[in-house]
Amino acid sequence: MGSRKRKGLDINGWLVLDKPAGLTSNQALGRVKWLFKPKKAGHAGTLDPLATGVLPIALGEATKTVSYPLNGRKAYRFTAQWGHETNTDDLDGEITARGTGKLPSAQDLSVICDAFQGRIWQVPPAFSAIKIDGKRAYKRAREGESVVLPERQVMIHELRYIDSPARDRSRFEVTCGKGTYVRALVRDMGRELGCLGHLQALRRTQVGPFHERDTISLDKLEQLRHSADPRALLSVLRPVESVLDDIPAFEVTQADARRLKRGQSVLIRGPAVLQTKGQVYATSQGRLIALGEIRKGALYPSRVFHL
């Protein structure tokens, strides 16, 4: 008996969604899948329901590159609420402790930003998607378990105080590396200041190569779906290779492209080969063919694309 064909349309590329507040990342992904009807889809980097902003969604062959934006820098704008902590480290949780220190001044906040830049240690929130013995931490926490996750090092490239729209609320911008929790950052800043705090609002403005300016809303996608132009919805997609800008690219012949697609290695010539280390990708006539590594002058494919 032959294998069943995967249902859906042959759509490939990246969509940079502006996720609205109130939806989980998986719910937002579900809306996109309903609109595009792709054979495959996945998102790169979970956002909490209260958060808005950049949620990259991979369609079709782009799902083979979904790890690449996750390894890049992320940037956020966020608002901290001072005065108390919650069990979720954000406004959706229950109050667990109240601060005894005075509310911070603008100078206090500028100084605290300097203290939290570079490589820092961070304990992820108990209500997080990290798995403990195969079960999500937030599920254990919701069931009343005492969840204490081990601290880990994260990278804060830049943390900047913007302003304070109210005496007990302050706005910041942060650029950080993989695995950073902004909720935990606010919690730890509040403890250091002595006033305690939790995350009140969060907007992601960058994930790897994708920026806030690249985003499109679900409402706009709905409009495009009902447009008279059948290609309008597809016009917002970015190429699969959009996430591979930092990886060396090599052009191969059509014959070599066929070999790579069969999983076979091909010889790569030229001076650039000697200086190339790590992953590369191959193109042929403007089409992405494969991801792989160069060893002893040959390109060995690890992922092949059917575009």
Overall description:
The protein is α+β, with helices and mostly antiparallel strands and 307 residues long. The protein has three domains: 13-71 and 210-241, Pseudouridine synthase, CATH 3.30.2350.10; 74-207, Pseudouridine synthase, CATH 3.30.2350.10; 247-304, PUA domain (Archaeosine Trna-guanine Transglycosylase, Chain: A, domain 4, Roll). 21% of the residues lie in helices and 35% in strands. The protein is built from eight helices and 18 strands. Strands 1, 2, 3, 4, 7, 10, 11, 12 and 13 form a nine-stranded mixed sheet that branches. It has a five-stranded mixed sheet with strand order 14-16-17-18-15, covered by helices on one side. Strands 5-6 form a two-stranded antiparallel sheet. Strand 17 (287-295) and strand 18 (298-304) form a beta hairpin. Helix 1 (25-36) packs parallel to helix 6 (218-225). The protein is globular, with a radius of gyration of 23 Å. The chain starts with 12 loop residues before the first strand and ends with a strand. The mean pLDDT is 90.
